[in-house]
Amino acid sequence: MSGARSLMVALEKEGANIVFGLPGGANLPIYDELYKSNIRHILVRHEQSASHMADGFGRVSRRPGVCFATSGPGATNIVTGIATAQADSAPMIAVTGQVPSKMIGRDAFQESDIIGITNPIVKYAFQPMNAAEIPEVVKKAFYISSTGRPGPVLIDVPKDVQQNEAEMVFPSEVKIRGYHPWVDPDVREIERAIDMLFTSERPIILAGGGVIISGAFAELQSIAELLMIPVVTTFKGKGSFPENHPLSLGPIGMHGHAEANKMMVEADCVLACGSRFSDRSVGTFEEFERHLKIIHMDVDPAEIGKNQTTNVAVVGDVRASLRIMVKMLIQKAIKRGGDNPWLKHVNETREYFRQNLKLHPHPLGAAKILRKLREVLPSQSIVTTEVGQHQMWASLFFDVIHPGTFFSSTGLGTMGWGFPAAIGAKAAKPDVPVLDIAGEGSFNMTENSLAVSVLDNLPVIVFLMNNFSLGMVAQWQRTFYDRRMIGIDLKNCPDYVKVAEAYGAQGIRAETIEDVGKAVQTALKSNVTTVIDIPMDPEEDVLPFVAPGTSLKDMILPS
Amino acid sequence: MWSIISVLVENKPGVLFKITNLFRSRNFNIDSISVGVTENPEFSKMTITTSADEKQLNQIIKQLDKLIDTVEVKLLDERKSIYRELVLMKIKVSKPSDIMEITDLANAFKCNVHDVRKSSMVIEITATPDRIDAFEDLIKGYGILEIARTGICALERGYGNES
């Protein structure tokens, strides 16, 4: 069988039933086999969107999403998508065509050294030079991508290798001697963690993306409830713990909830689950760890001690580690009541900020819009975001109730990610509503995916918080550059209702809060791709704000 | 403070690039690197020396370990390891008596004299870095024309339980 055929068979064996991509000269043999296979193909309009769709599919289904691109510019167009998946530990398989092996290194037409280009941003990359290698390469790619700390894996296949015939052996399992993703958590360290948590006066749980990746929602909730510890999250961990839970304080960080940042600073011991202590979450590293005992649980040993000095380190799958912890707590009948000064203080602080935090007065202020959205959107819906002010407003004002339903490009901060990722998410879970909380600056970058959403029957809602500008940059120019505004004005162009209609989607302009609610309900009911354009005040800032290079205690509150 | 890291890697194309690119992308520094195939042709051994503080060194080792093509990463204890570097030096000969003097110095450091010309000599020294520095210090008065160094390679003493 040919290399291309074996690729398709191997993908099917791994359970891949959908591929996002765009064909070109160097991957035509692969597409010819795709034509004959049962795998569904979603034709994108730009390869970057294919990689984001695969990423969104992967995060939601927790198995690698697959994207195809041709050599040269096709391959370089998915670089941003690969980097995004790597920064957020998302499982993804990118298959690129490459010029024939004899042409590699000769600067052939549409040749790019995609292996070299992507080296720092992939979990691993393969370039099979014989067709017979392909089945094992695919098996290994899925194994590496989906185990341990997930990430993107690239398979770059020269055209002749796609065409060549070979005897194919499809291995049922693979071993890689330099790769050991399964580490059993050290039980003694977990015991130490429990002691430390139980003996501290002001413990807090910091839940990161690892909780979502490993699906440790129930375990996390059990521990919080058994020990009555308040839970903050990173932005990536947003929604790993129900944000309407009495112990929930929401995300910390640059645009974290005021109560979350405040309690994080006051805590004396943190149980960090699957978090890498990003600068956006913790502010300055030195200040963060100053008065804090840190228990760090992570599947990636290299994260231990990278940004923060830890007191207790539990290396292993977060869910497995938390599960052991829950068992120990139950066996030893360790429980803590809610009647303690710390928890009382936490509740008072949250109540204070809920009552007193000033919101933007505009009738279509971000908080009003997003709270209306929460009211009308079913809780199991999947929500993605783009990158910018709307994203941070979502962090502040959109409560995630159902764990693991909120996804964002949090690490790389890729504008244009949310819409194609939403389409990928819809492909993974066609039965739930999928909505992209968007800004128009980001949406501009991948709005041509409207064609995909409409034609491939993957209807999603684009909830466009339109402030006619690159709002986050504008906010920094207002705050740090004395209002020297440059390069931010998008001048109300294009008309997004017309854009939607041009692609055969539904476009609705919502000019009041009631309109916003109705528009979402219309979109949900009609089940067609909908862009809801919501004109906002371009001067609205995202607050609270922890300025870059400062610590959480220096949080700027709205005045 | 410099450290010696011994890395056993898969012997296949692109692995050296991954290792050096890791150092570059994470802003670590390589002082020297030497690479060669091991007794098992499936593996290569790299010896990397780096000057890094303890925290950074810890990260370097963990990040190296995380690479899928690395099979084993060890921080070598200088006292329990043998480490050597081979250096070829081309030294200027200004007058005939220089040849004898340089040869005597070379013998004192157990160097090999490989090439003697009217105006230059090539000497090979295989030693620890501090010994090489001492030799270089003595010889530089004559004028060093060219230098090529292999980088340090190292092995732990003993095997299994003996080490």
Describe the protein's architecture and organization.
The complex is a heterodimer of chains A (559) and B (163). With 559 residues, chain A is of the alpha/beta class. Chain A is 40% helix and 15% strand. In chain A, the strands form 3 sheets. In chain A, strands 2-1-3-4-6-5 form a 6-stranded parallel sheet, sandwiched between helices. In chain A, strands 9-8-7-10-11-12 form a 6-stranded parallel sheet, with helices on both faces. A 6-stranded parallel sheet of chain A has the order 14-13-15-16-18-17, sandwiched between helices. Chain A is globular. Chain A starts with a helix and ends in a 24-residue tail after the last strand. Chain B has 163 residues and is of the alpha+beta class. Chain B has 2 domains: 3-76, Alpha-Beta Plaits, CATH 3.30.70; 82-156, ACT-like. Chain A, domain 2 (Alpha-Beta Plaits). Chain B has helices at residues 15-25, 54-66, 96-108, 129-139, and strands at 3-10, 32-37, 43-50, 70-76, 81-92, 112-116, 120-127, 144-156. In chain B, the strands form 2 sheets. In chain B, strands 2-3-1-4 form a 4-stranded antiparallel sheet, with helices on one face. The longest helix of chain B is centred in the middle third of the chain and has 13 residues, at 54-66. Chain B is elongated and about 55 Å long. The chains are: A alpha/beta (559), B alpha+beta (163). The interface between A and B is medium-sized, with 17 and 20 residues.
